[in-house]
Amino acid sequence: MFQSLPATTLAVFLALAALSVLTVTVAIFKITQFRRMGLGRHNEAEAILDDWLNGRPDEAQRKATASGSVLSRVLRAVMSGLRARPSDPFYGEELARQAALVELTRMGSRMRLLEAVVQMAPMLGLLGTVIGMIDAFGSLAASQAAADPRMLASGIWTALTTTAAGLSIALVAYFIAAWLEGRIDDERQTIEMVISSAIHGRVGQTRG
After folding, report:
1. CA separation (Å) from 8 to 2, 15, 177?
2. What is the model's pTM?
3. What is the number of alpha carbons within 13 Å of residue 14 lying toward its C-beta?
4. For 124, phi and psi rounded to 5 degrees?
5. CA-to-CA distance for 59 and 162, rounded, in angstroms?
6. What DSSP character marks residue 69?
7. CA gap 143, 151 in Å, rounded
């Protein structure tokens, strides 16, 4: 079937295949990156906060240094600032904000590629359909013989497959991007919570 396709339609299929490979590659990269960064390891952050708020700063610092999670790195920054300048909580908060910005920037890397796939795949599929329809009806118009409905239907079917493929790729990329963005948003909210807790304490709990 692919050998009989016009060169432009074949190019659209190849571009859609490249987008599907890109989607899978980015998804694998982000999942691996999140695991290495330690996303979602909230229990470790809770243990560090418990030590910090209950008057065990050395133990909290030790746990934060030993842990490899995003939250522990942010907590290490805020605790270092608060211990360096106990009378200036703004300094610790600023260090934590800077550490959080670095982590969030890393988490958001490559996400725009998935957004690009979501936008490009349907347009490429539609372009392939339009090109295929033009080719099918152009061949019909140039033919001197009687029109064969089966040949016309075959050409239209082939043209419509590019739109179906483009929409399928876009849907997959959209759900992957939404899932990854959800994890990033959850980590962002948790970062804000642990920074506030480390500086001001938890609700109903005061620092020792």
Report:
1. 11, 10, 29
2. 0.84
3. 9
4. -65, -40
5. 59
6. S
7. 12
Q: Which two tokens stand for residue 64?
A: 């934060």
> Which tens digits make up the pLDDT trace of 8-51?
778 889 999 999 999 999 999 999 999 999 998 999 999 999 99
Top pLDDT among 35 and 132 is at 35
The first and second tokens of residue 170, run together, are: 């876009």
pLDDT in tens, 40-95: 899 999 999 999 999 999 999 999 999 889 999 999 999 999 999 999 999 999 99
As a whole number of angstroms, the distance between CA 34 and CA 154 comes to 46
Q: What is the C-alpha to C-alpha distance for residues 113 and 12, in angstroms, rounded to an integer?
A: 19
Which two tokens mark 99? 């550490």
The string of DSSP letters for 113-135 reads HHHHHHHHHHHHHHHHHHHHHHH
Neighbours of 68 (CB within 10 A): 12
Distance CA(5)–CA(17), nearest Å, equals 16
